[in-house]
Write a structure and sequence with these properties.
Helices cover 7% and strands 44% of the residues. The strands form six sheets. Strands 2, 20, 21, 22 and 23 form a five-stranded antiparallel β-sheet that branches. Strands 11, 12, 13, 14 and 15 form a five-stranded antiparallel β-sheet that branches. It is globular, with a radius of gyration of 24 Å.
């Protein structure tokens, strides 16, 4: 009797499975066909600017600024981290050098703690008081809490601490055994934010201390960098591939559709990063098109399984001058010369295959 009982209970289950298998082919009156899980996504992913995404132990973290606060979200899926619920991890103080205009935060995991590099200043415009600062997590959790490590010195006289200079968009990375900071800054402080922006580099003794005077690394002098209203280089980001080291940066005016990416490449692993002659400039390496305008301020990460490289960047929402922007991402590859090949900016609403490892 045990065998017959088993068969009796199995028969309805088999029938249910067969019905489910056929349901995608036969749809009854008034029924909607089941929707297959899509392994694609479309750009843009949402409103935002200066997107920074990093991956640590299988989790993606996205950091952004809004309303003079810095927010962090996380997800195991790259395409979902931008839209994930965000937690405020720091609020600008009511007074001091960094009480307003909180811009372009970056999140870095260094020696067991998280550091957020950002730009801040005093209220109002023009934005002539902007300066780089850094926050440090009290533990190993990217979601905080954080303590303010203060302003980083970005001038020409580390020994005296005088002669500090305007600075934004600081990023950090280790080349060999030395950690470096790179940022966008002014040669001299000025009374107008329509002042030429250059890229500077300096070594660091720890994640919150510049240990030597800055060196002018690059200036906006190429024909594809020279603007109609302002000449600038900003948003530098390190990109390393094996022994090759790149700095991918934004150039032209951020509020215009001509905003784009340029590139510096360290000539060899033996080259001194502090020597401007050690870097070769190429550009533009990524531009907008008929449907995507003013691409820039990128960050770089890999797919969940580590097999693909992805660029996360922002673009303008229209050709009209302004700072209304969206966040986008797409895969890139490495060319035969060893340079990153970003390809064409993917048009809005065009299906893009999800990063490898996101779909089962």
């Amino acid at each position: 009797m045990r065998g017959l009982t088993t068969v009796r209970f199995l028969l309805p289950a088999v029938g249910a499975l067969l019905a489910a298998a056929c349901s995608s082919a036969v749809v009854g009156p008034g029924q909607e066909p089941p929707v297959a899980q899509s392994c694609t996504f479309t750009n843009p992913l949402g409103a935002g600017q200066d997107p920074w995404v990093t991956r640590q132990e299988g989790v993606y973290y996205y950091v952004k600024s809004a309303n003079d606060r810095i927010w962090v979200s996380k997800s195991t899926k790259l395409t979902e981290v931008v839209g994930a619920a965000a937690t405020p991890v720091w609020t600008a103080p009511a007074s001091g050098w960094n009480q307003s205009n909180i811009w372009a935060p970056e999140l870095h995991f260094i020696d067991g703690r998280w550091y957020i590099y950002y730009a801040g200043g005093r209220p109002g415009t023009p934005f002539t008081s902007q300066h780089a600062g850094v926050l440090e997590s009290t533990g190993a959790d990217a979601m905080g809490p954080y303590v303010d490590r203060g302003m980083l010195y970005t001038g020409d006289s580390v020994g005296t601490g005088t002669g500090d200079r305007w600075s934004i968009d600081m990023t950090v990375s280790t080349i060999g055994t030395q950690r470096y900071a790179v940022w966008s800054g002014w040669a001299k402080n000025a009374a107008t934010d329509k002042t030429t922006q250059h890229l500077y580099i300096a070594p660091m003794s720890n994640p919150w201390t510049i240990s030597a005077n800055r060196v002018l690394l690059s200036s906006p002098v190429e024909s594809w960098e020279v603007g109609t209203e302002l000449d600038l280089e900003e948003g530098p980001e390190f990109l390393q591939h094996g022994a090759d080291v790149f700095l991918v940066y934004s150039t032209r005016e951020s509020w215009l559709k001509e905003y784009r990416l340029g590139q510096l490449r360290l000539r060899s692993g033996a080259s001194d990063p502090m020597n401007p002659a050690s870097w070769t400039k190429t550009g533009p390496v990524f531009t907008g098109n008929v449907g995507v305008y003013g691409v820039g301020h990128a960050s770089f990460t890999t797919s969940p399984d580590g097999s693909e490289n992805w660029i996360v960047y922002h673009s303008k929402t229209s050709t009209v001058p302004g700072w209304d922007r969206d966040v986008r991402m797409q895969r890139f590859i490495w060319s035969a010369t060893g340079d990153p090949a970003f390809g064409e900016a993917v048009l809005p609403l065009s299906p893009v295959k999800r990063p490898s490892g996101e779909c089962s």
